[in-house]
Amino acid sequence: MESADETGIHVVDDIDDPEIREVDAQQRRIQAFSVGLEGAGDRKTIGTVIYKSIYTVILSKKFNLLIPFGPLAIFVQKKANQNGWVFILGLLGIMPLAERLGYTTEQLAFYSGPTIGGLLNATFGNATELIISIYALRTGRIRVVQLSLLGSLLSNLLFVLGIAFFSGGIVRKEQVFNKATAVVDSGLLLMAVMGLLFPASLHSTGTEVHLGVSELALSRVNSCVLLLAYVASIIFQLKNIKHLEGNQHGEILYSDDQDQDQDEEGEAAPEISKWESVIWLGITAAAISILSEYLVDAIEGTSLAWGVPVAFISVILLPIGGNTAAVTTSVMFAMKDKLDVSLGVAIGSSTQISMFIIPFCVVVGWIFGRPVDLNFQLFETATLFMTVLFVAFMMQEGTSNYFKGLMLLFCYVLVAASYFVHEDPSSWLVITYYILELIP
């Protein structure tokens, strides 16, 4: 039952679900904010729209209190040149920006229909990782590109999926997810591992026909094949949109009846307009692009200041910025017993990174004359292979519980410990160059 308060805003009175009441309360706060602004004049001004949009996108979320750390990181870099502090502050500042980028993409998808909306989520699902990789590639930090993308893969497959299984298992003894979709996603991940494994094996065994050339050529061929396979998977998904409960890009695809139920619960209504979504998408992407420059530039200096390997910073610490939103989303839906959404966030993001972003970086490097290859070195490829194999084994039954989540989290600790004592062979060249740059 609905009633109207003194501002004329409709209030839902008979909902027992505290989560739905919280959503309704947030919408009423936004409406009240708008009504208060509109009360100052007879007509809705441009300023009113701007203030309401800022409140909805920025001020309504406590997590966005971390945004000022981004400008603070830039200030510290300009004034003190303390790379360790720049990295920490930049990492804190980029986390809410990455979450807001995903939010604005979801809002824009409401106005685009299921097909275009799915493509938007597929394109911008890992935009933070892509922006960081493109900047690192543009500045010649090819190894940072490889390690950061590898870290995002490991974080999504072990940490994000593990914490989703664990949190969902705490609420319910056992949860069920779409086994068929999980099998397809596992197959795509294993295909991507094959694309990385063969160049690394070719280099490690020294069996190249043309030294230094065959490995790069194989990487470019594999990248083109992986990109074609990824496009085929998108087409297959969109063709079968009515027959799937979820997709691999973090968005559940509902039937018409399910869409109606979502609207009744107040969970599927857009909060900002289409043009507001486009503008905020551009603003957040630009902010991430600027902040990623300072974040990437601080990696080598942070390694020297902390005495921590570059590989550990790139593989374990750097992906935290892009995966914060994935963690909160996967936990939230897992506790609501919507595990297919959680799998879409974790596994779908990993599929996109391995099948699209990594091959895309190789092709971009090819176009701009950068020798980017798929040889992630033997140690890194082995950790990824074992991770994908273990995750595929965990998902083969189509069920999850808290113990499976614990095993995934423990595996992530093992991986993190391994990279803490692993010195990347190429990092010595990077650090030497960095030291020489500091010498007048």
Automatic annotation (TrEMBL):
- What keywords would UniProt list here? Antiport, Calcium, Calcium transport, Ion transport, Membrane, Transmembrane, Transmembrane helix, Transport, Vacuole
Q: Where in the cell is it found?
A: Vacuole membrane
Q: Does the keyword Transmembrane helix apply?
A: yes
| InterPro entries linked | CaH_exchang, CAX-like, NaCa_Exmemb, NCX_ion-bd_dom_sf
What coarse category fits the chief subcellular location reported for this protein?
membrane
Membrane topology, as annotated: Multi-pass membrane protein
| Keyword match Ribonucleoprotein | no
Q: Which family does it belong to?
A: Belongs to the Ca(2+):cation antiporter (CaCA) (TC 2.A.19) family. Cation/proton exchanger (CAX) subfamily.
- Role of this protein: Vacuolar cation/proton exchanger (CAX). Translocates Ca(2+) and other metal ions into vacuoles using the proton gradient formed by H(+)-ATPase and H(+)-pyrophosphatase.
**Protein name (database record):** Vacuolar cation/proton exchanger
Q: Which organism is it from?
A: Gossypium stocksii
